[in-house]
Amino acid sequence: MSELIKWFEKRRESRALATIQRHLALTTGIVEDLEKAIRAAIKGDTKEMQVCIERVASSEKEADSLRRKVMDEISKGELSPVDRADLMDLVKRVDMVADWSRESTRVLGAIPMEQLPTSIKEEFIEMVKSVKGCAISLQKCVNKMMVKPEEALQAADEVEREEEKVDDLHEKARKLLGKEEFPKAGVAILASQL
To answer: 185 to each of 31, 109, 114, 179, 190, how far by Cα in Å?
Structure first.
């Protein structure tokens, strides 16, 4: 990992790093739009929800394109095979955030929000706020790798803490799903997928 950090220190202006930063910013924006879509759905504003869902879909396609571009640039670079694999893994994981956000909007569009208990809706809001915090922390972490590599490990710890918060909220939501009454089993299933 130290070789990877040295590589970042030497090549702050490289095309790959600039593309990684654009990919991260785009992914963070996708998560922010997911949050807006969920809030709009809960308020019953289907028009705003749909606008946000469309932005997520469009941005996710762009993120996929950036991921492919980054992978191509990294594969041509001078990194060691281990560091190249680490960097590619990072880019793939960031892209998974965009992919899962897109998948969440697909589920969101199918959920009849008016049939969900208030406690579940509130949990959706808490979870997406936490996911957004995690995405922002991840963006800060990777940016530190590029600007202040010596601080990147501390930032990575913050990302892990944010992920643990999301996991705890997800566990709480699953427990709520088991306790709440739903008018139809399908609504509960859809809620569990979000």
So the answer is: 28, 17, 15, 13, 9
Contact of 141 with 158, CB cutoff 8 Å: yes
Instruction: Please state, in angstroms and rounded to a whole number, the distance separating the CA atoms of residues 104 and 19.
Output: 25
Domain boundaries defined on the chain = 2-193
Q: Please, are residues 138 and 159 in contact by the beta-carbon 8 Å criterion?
A: yes
Distance CA 183, CA 120 (A): 14
- CB atoms under 10 Å from CB of 23, counted, come to 24
Question: 10-residue block means of pLDDT along the chain (194 residues)?
Answer: 60 68 94 98 97 98 93 78 82 91 96 95 95 91 80 86 92 92 90 90
Please tell me the distance from the alpha carbon of residue 171 to that of residue 160, in angstroms, as a whole number: 16
Rounded to whole angstroms, the Cα distance separating 133 from 138 reads 9
Fold designation for 2-193: Methane Monooxygenase Hydroxylase; Chain G, domain 1 (1.20.58)
